[in-house]
Amino acid sequence: MQVTDTDFEKTISDNELVLVDFWAPWCGPCKQITPILESILESNPELTLAKVNVDDEMEVAKRYNVRGLPTLLLFEGGELRATHVGLASKDKLMAFVNQETI
Q1: pLDDT tens-digit series, residues 34-47
Q2: How far, in Å, CA of 34 to CA of 64, rounded?
Q3: What CATH number corresponds to the domain at position 66?
Q4: By residue range, what is the domain housing residue 73?
Q5: What is the mean pLDDT of residues 46-53?
């Protein structure tokens, strides 16, 4: 689901486990990570994927100091739990979501 500056807080508070993907249309690694994230979603039905286009939604990107793309933020119960920056393999991203050591 695409989220905006205005509905970001509601999205992370209304869902127990949210993976936020900060991306941009011009970002090659962002395009590469999308099918990996979709695959992770299939095996983690409790996970909600929220996508934030940093070209359009700059306020939330600034709030979380997003400096590189893709940036993934993992929220649990509305609280930021972990951050990952850059492209990674499916196994590493699964570990990130499950909070094992990357």
Answers
A1: 999 999 999 999 99
A2: 21
A3: 3.40.30.10
A4: 8-87
A5: 96
**CA separation for the pair 70, 28 (Å, rounded):** 9
Number of domains in the chain: 1
> Is residue 64 assigned to a domain?
yes
Question: What CA–CA distance (Å, rounded) separates 19 from 32?
Answer: 16
Residues recognised as catalytic: 27, 30
Q: Residue 99 has what pLDDT? A: 81
Look at residues 62, 66, 69 and name the one whose alpha carbon lies nearest to residue 26.
69
Point out which residues pair with 5 in neighbouring strands.
Answer: none
Query: Over 50: is that where the pLDDT of 102 sits?
Result: no
Does residue 59 lie within any of the structural domains?
yes
- Residue with the two structure tokens 């990130």: 96
Q: Which two tokens stand for residue 63?
A: 């709030």
Distance, CA of 33 to CA of 14 (rounded, Å): 25
